[in-house]
Amino acid sequence: MQNIRQCVKYLALCGKSVVNKTDIIPNAAKVTNFIPTCSLHLSSAICNKGAIKHEAPTGFLRYNETIFPPQKPGEERRPAYVCHMKANIKYSIKNMWYIACFVRGMSVDEAVKQLSFIPKKGAAIAKEVILEAQRLAVEEHNVEYKSNLWVAESFATKGVVIKGIRRHARMRIGTIHYRHCHYFVRLEEGPPPKHYYLPHPKSGEELLEDWLKMMHTRKVVNSL
Known about the structure:
By secondary structure, the protein is an alpha+beta fold. The chain has five helices and three strands. GO terms for molecular function: structural constituent of ribosome.
């Protein structure tokens, strides 16, 4: 193909016009269905035919299929919940970890509101997953009020890592990694807890009592 282009440019400089490709290639009429292809692929993701299909983890979504026994009269009502996820996100797991920890223990409305003001790619992804989980809770899990939900679990795990080649100086090559991550979220019905992480932070009075107790029990070493 490159030689044909050079011949066309040469004939154009000489003042000749090329009517068809048979002027350059005598047997070009016999060539049919010519499709230029490249046999060099730097990674398996570039080749469509031989691409590896990376399956998403399905163990977390099986919690939606759990069937609980009937509750006894007078027993505390079991809150409804819904599990949702998004697999193989082209985003760093380290950056997604901060977003996942940020929304834990928040109500759905508060989490969506806070994520709307974070200018990060992971915040937009987490917001999308939470809204999808909220919709599934109302449509498939019999949650009456969509605002009566809070983020019970939110975490990210490592996804597929695709290796590629990067060209370096002096005819050397280096390895480049295209990293992905999975994001999981579980919404639970009811109001969010006051303290998500246990033990909860102590108040000023409790800290003062602990300090007084420590001072009363102190002892001078090697004394009478």
